[in-house]
Amino acid sequence: MKRALLLLLLIALTAEGLYLLNSPGYAQEGGTRYFPETGHNLQGAFFNYFQEKGLLVQYFQRARLVLTGSRGKKASGSGEVEVAPLGELLGQRSPPFEPTYHFPHRYYPQTGHALSFAFLDYYEGKGGKEVFGYPITEPFLERGLIVQYFQRARLEWHPDKKCVQLGFLGEEYFEARGLDPALRAPVELTVEETTPTPLFRGSERGYMRVRGTKGEGLQLREGPGFASSTVYLLPEGTLVQVIGGPVEADGYRWWQLTYERLEGWSAGAWLQPLGEGETPP
Question: How far apart are CA 79 and CA 23, in angstroms?
Answer without folding.
Answer: 18
